[in-house]
């Protein structure tokens, strides 16, 4: 009966009792058959983001949960999949994180119940519902809002992994952090300060620089200002001519050469993003004069196992709960405004994290 009703009107809900469905998903909550979602059919500019109102709601498979997203995160990486800088199959629903309520539990999926408030890392986040792997989903503890989690989930886990494992930051280290007012940068400035580092943050424009300063950065450089254009010299001046112990560079094409100059002898550069375009292939002999170490990490390499994922999510949640880590939401955009979010991100107009309300 439910199926035929659902066929006749896509907005009718399907209600299923969780006790009777064996290997089928367990639904208790009402779930529509269609939903709002943003689909990308082919790579291109923000105009390829197609807002749809009757996209099929996915059915959770073995090991999956169906999550009704309350809020989804927008990350710079989403633009790489949109443009094709990073390859991914199309058509595709972009968006690599969400927070909301478990609406159905897939067959052979354990550890979660319908109604649990969760955050997940996967794909298909620009949608009302997402079928996500339970293994990359965590329950959100009481006292932390979905919005706080989304403003710090993918970005915050990245920052923690890169500051603890890629290069274990030491008290007293001089750190150069580019794009320090961004979604990841805003969190990283704070994490680095809690680790006792001396932070030199770069950001574009007075407002962004004031924000970075307010987080406790020791030196802030507006690398788009006349004076800040020579940010390498300013970094050298701030460190007594020595250079920094570590550079975290997610800007890429426009900053990589300066980062190589600004790092100290025996220092480390972590290149982790392409906001201005990718870092070109670097001839290895370029690293020899100063014996520089380089890393090109990705978050997902540090949270591959459930144990690793839980380690970093627990760490993040305890920082949020204790108030040691503050979040900043640039703006919550309605799902239909997704093209504007991408324009704002790529136009360097955001401070902190843009979120989407599906
Ligand atoms: N490897 C990983 O696993 C991983 C994980 C998360 C994030 N990331 C990377 O970390 C970076 C930050 O990500 P996010 O989502 O938090 O973005 P975001 O920092 O909020 O936005 C990117 C920022 O980069 C700066 N930027 C410099 N040159 C730019 C240009 N030509 N075009 C656009 N922006 C430019 C802008 O800040 P200013 O105006 O201050 O210059 C802009 O606000 C991205 O490169 C992302 O790919 C990597």
UniProtKB/TrEMBL annotation:
Residue span(s) of domain Enoyl reductase (ER): 44-356
Superkingdom per UniProt: Eukaryota
Gene Ontology cellular component terms for the protein in this record: cytosol
GO MF annotations, alphabetized: mRNA 3'-UTR AU-rich region binding; NADPH binding; quinone reductase (NADPH) activity; zinc ion binding
Gene3D superfamilies recorded: Medium-chain alcohol dehydrogenases, catalytic domain (3.90.180.10), NAD(P)-binding Rossmann-like Domain (3.40.50.720)
Listed Pfam families: ADH_N, ADH_zinc_N
InterPro entries for this protein: ADH-like_C, ADH-like_N, ER, GroES-like_sf, NAD(P)-bd_dom_sf, QOR-like, Quin_OxRdtase/zeta-crystal_CS
Keywords, comma-separated and alphabetical: NADP, Oxidoreductase
Name of the featured protein: Probable quinone oxidoreductase
Species for this entry: Penicillium olsonii
């Amino acid at each position: 009966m439910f199926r035929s009703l659902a066929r006749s009107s896509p907005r009718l809900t399907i209600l299923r009792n969780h006790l009777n469905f064996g290997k089928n998903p367990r639904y208790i909550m009402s779930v529509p058959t269609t939903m709002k979602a943003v689909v990308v059919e082919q790579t291109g500019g923000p105009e390829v983001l197609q807002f749809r109102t009757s996209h099929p709601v996915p059915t959770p498979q073995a090991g999956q949960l169906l999550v009704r997203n309350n809020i989804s995160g927008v990350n710079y990486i989403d633009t790489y999949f949109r443009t094709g800088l990073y390859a991914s199959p199309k058509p595709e629903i972009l968006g690599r994180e969400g927070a909301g309520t478990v609406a159905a539990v897939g067959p052979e999926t354990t550890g979660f119940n319908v109604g649990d408030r969760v955050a997940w890392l996967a794909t298909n986040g620009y949608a009302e519902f997402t079928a996500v792997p339970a293994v990359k989903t965590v329950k959100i503890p009481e006292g932390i809002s979905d919005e706080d989690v989304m403003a710090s989930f993918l970005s915050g886990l990245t920052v923690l992994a890169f500051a603890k494992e890629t290069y274990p930051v030491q008290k007293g280290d001089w750190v150069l952090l580019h794009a320090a007012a961004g979604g990841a940068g805003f969190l990283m400035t704070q994490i680095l300060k809690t680790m006792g580092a001396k932070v030199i943050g770069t950001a574009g424009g007075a407002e962004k620089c004031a924000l970075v300063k307010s987080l406790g950065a020791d030196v802030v450089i507006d690398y788009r200002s006349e004076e800040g254009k020579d940010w390498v010299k300013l970094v050298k001046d701030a460190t007594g001519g020595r250079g920094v112990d570590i550079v975290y560079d997610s800007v890429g094409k426009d900053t990589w050469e300066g980062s190589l100059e600004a790092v100290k002898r025996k220092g480390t550069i972590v290149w982790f993003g392409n906001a201005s375009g990718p870092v070109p292939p670097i001839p290895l002999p370029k690293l020899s004069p100063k014996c520089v170490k380089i890393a090109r990490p990705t978050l997902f390499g540090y949270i591959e196992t459930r144990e690793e994922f839980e380690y970093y999510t627990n760490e993040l949640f305890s920082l949020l709960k204790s108030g040691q880590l503050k979040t900043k939401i640039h703006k919550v955009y309605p799902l239909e405004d997704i093209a504007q979010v991408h324009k704002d991100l790529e136009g360097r107009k955001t401070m902190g994290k843009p979120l989407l309300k599906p």
